[in-house]
Amino acid sequence: MKLNKQEITQLLPHREPMLLIDELRDIKKLSSATGIVNVKKNSFFVQGHFPNNPVMPGVLIVESFGQAAAALTAHGLDKSTYENKLVFLMGVEKARFRNPVVPDCELVLKIEAIRSHGRVWKYKGEAFVDDKKMADAIWSATIVDRK
């Protein structure tokens, strides 16, 4: 199963320029998925991070992990469970940035839901470019009412 960017916008409240996930594939309901981020030379963060030496900020890699996980979770839940809700990042553990992510590349995010308890979910993920590990993290998020 695969979701394109338009289908992802039906699951997440994020919009350009902060919608970072371009595709979600290999979806295993409420368990795992692969997120795709097309890091381009004209991505909004490239001009200032860093001029003449562009690097995707680590915080945006973590945000990409979170968006992929939120889309995986929303896709697996009944629509009434996530409709009019937001997913908020609660914590990030052991985030490691192993290699710089530079444009033009496809950042592949392998994410897995570790556990859920009510509205709180815990995930782990690894980010790759051309099969080279760029980053990994463990994070938690919660689903809250939209206000």
Please render the helix and strand layout as text:
Blueprint: E1 2-4, H1 5-9, E2 23-28, E3 32-39, H2 58-76, H3 79-82, E4 85-97, E5 105-117, E6 120-129, E7 132-145
Antiparallel strand pairs: 1-2, 2-3, 3-5, 4-7, 5-6, 6-7
Short structural summary:
This protein is α+β, with helices and mostly antiparallel strands. The protein is 19% helix and 46% strand.
Provide a descriptive summary of the structure in words:
Helix content is 19%, strand content 46%. It has a single domain (2-145), classed as Hotdog Thioesterase (Thiol Ester Dehydrase, Chain A, Roll), CATH 3.10.129.10. It is globular, with a radius of gyration of 15 Å. Strands 1-2-3-5-6-7-4 form a 7-stranded antiparallel β-sheet. It has helices at residues 5-9, 58-76, 79-82, and strands at 2-4, 23-28, 32-39, 85-97, 105-117, 120-129, 132-145. By secondary structure, it is of the alpha+beta class.
Name some characteristics of this structure.
19% helix; single chain; alpha+beta; 147 residues
- Helical content, roughly? 10-25%
How many beta-strand elements? Answer: 7
Q: How large a portion of the residues is in β-strands, by DSSP E?
A: over 45%
Number of domains: 1
**Silhouette:** globular
Output the helix-strand order. EHEEHHEEEE
Structural class call reads alpha+beta
Mean pLDDT, as a whole number? 94
Radius of gyration (Å)? 15 Å
Largest sheet: 7 strands, antiparallel
**What separation lies between the terminal Cα atoms?**
32 Å
* Poorly predicted ranges: none
Count up the helices: 3
CATH topology: Thiol Ester Dehydrase, Chain A
Widest beta sheet: strand line-up:
1-2-3-5-6-7-4
The CATH class turns out to be Alpha Beta
CATH homologous superfamily name?
A: Hotdog Thioesterase
CATH architecture assignment: Roll
